[in-house]
UniProtKB/TrEMBL annotation:
Gene3D superfamilies: Phosphatidic acid phosphatase type 2/haloperoxidase. This is Phosphatase PAP2 family protein. The chain crosses the membrane at residues 30-54, 129-151, 157-175. The keyword Oxidoreductase does not apply. Residues 58-172 form the Phosphatidic acid phosphatase type 2/haloperoxidase domain. It comes from Pallidibacillus thermolactis. PANTHER family: DECAPRENYLPHOSPHORYL-5-PHOSPHORIBOSE PHOSPHATASE RV3807C-RELATED (PTHR14969:SF62), SPHINGOSINE-1-PHOSPHATE PHOSPHOHYDROLASE (PTHR14969). Keywords: Cell membrane, Hydrolase, Membrane, Transmembrane, Transmembrane helix. InterPro entries: PAP2/HPO, PAP2/HPO_sf. It is found in: Cell membrane.
Length: 180
């Protein structure tokens, strides 16, 4: 049990460090904007546009992203039901929180899961340094924004990143194996 307590204390310290240190005017604007890239509406529209506007192997990658987004969203909703962790702004005092807090459980981060589940197939499709770096920078910005805005603990975000990345990798590999 001592290990669980130590891990919880490390996570709280990390949460407070990220949440409080980024509470600056320009950072708040950036993170308040970028967080929406991981939202369901934006992800669905972005993947739908890629499906419509692409062809060939790029369209297969967009299909892998759409499948990955769907599967990861179902998993997130199931996990949230079985592990209804309260959001940080509900439990913790003296934190920065966005003016539009969410009501559903905190674990895992749906935004982090969504953006990684969609972006990882594209990173695998075109692993050029500039393109991959840009996508991963945006994805990690969304993930960090969830902590900065007081909506998630670091472990919520980490599990979302891992779940989205794994789902994205597996669906890309399967779509590539089946259709190419």
């Amino acid at each position: 049990m001592r290990y669980v307590y130590v891990i919880q204390q490390i996570e709280l310290k990390l949460f407070y460090t990220i949440n409080r240190n980024y509470n600056k005017k320009m950072a708040n604007r950036y993170f308040s904007f970028i967080t929406h890239l991981g939202g369901a509406m934006f992800m669905i529209i972005a993947v739908s546009l890629m499906l419509i506007m692409s062809n060939g192997s790029l369209q297969l990658t967009a299909k892998a992203s759409a499948i990955s987004l769907t599967i990861s969203h179902i998993i997130v909703q199931l996990v949230k039901r079985f592990f209804p962790r309260k959001r940080p702004y509900v439990v913790l005092n003296e934190i920065y929180v966005t003016n539009k807090p969410l009501k559903d459980p905190s674990f895992p981060s749906g935004h982090s899961t969504a953006i990684f589940s969609v972006f990882i197939p594209f990173v695998l499709y075109s692993p050029t340094l500039l393109f991959s770096t840009l996508l991963l920078f945006l994805a990690f910005s969304v993930a960090i924004s969830r902590i900065v805005l007081g909506l998630h603990y670091p472990s919520d975000v980490l599990v979302g990143i891992l779940l989205g990345s794994l789902t994205g990798y597996i669906t890309y590999a399967l779509v590539k194996q089946i259709f190419l």
